[in-house]
Amino acid sequence: MIPPQPLVLVVDDDVLERMGASFMFSDAGYQVIEAGDADAALRFFETNADIRLLFTDVSMPGSINGSDLARQVTERWPLVGVIMTSGRPFPTGLPPSVRFHSKPYEPVDVLRHAREMSAPLA
Q1: Omega into 120 within 30° of 0, i.e. cis?
Q2: In a 3-state reduction of DSSP, which class is residue 118?
């Protein structure tokens, strides 16, 4: 029996960016769910214990941005890998486990980090 592929939550308020990232992950074999802002992303985390990886943009509307989302996820769900992306400079104050990729990012680099962060738990 083939084990289920890790579940990735892609968060970006830009629909085209979100679709592109979702396709990148699904094409690489991941299961993908999407959220348009950090508030919706937190609701997914609160109702779905299977999420293994968060891929989020930094700048988004809503009560919190992607940096705040990354901090909350690493604090509340420490086993979830976090990859951030932005067309702006690297945000300060991120947990050391968070990986950052500037836009436009290289899918091969993002997917390498995703594989490392979503490896099956021992």
Answers
A1: no
A2: coil
Total count of domains within the chain: 1
Q: How many Cβ atoms are within 10 Å of 55's Cβ, its own excluded?
A: 29
Of 89 and 52, the one with more pLDDT: 52
**122 inside domain:** no
- The pTM of the full predicted model, rounded to 2 decimals, is 0.92
What is the distance in angstroms between the CA of the first residue and the CA of the last residue of the chain?
18
pLDDT in tens, 64-101: 999 999 999 999 999 999 999 998 877 788 888 999 99
Quote the tokens at residue 85: 């992306």
- Whether 76 and 85 have beta carbons less than 8 Å apart is answered as no
CATH number of the domain enclosing 30: 3.40.50.2300
Task: Give residue 87's pLDDT.
Answer: 86
Is 94 domain-assigned? yes
Largest CA distance in the chain: 44
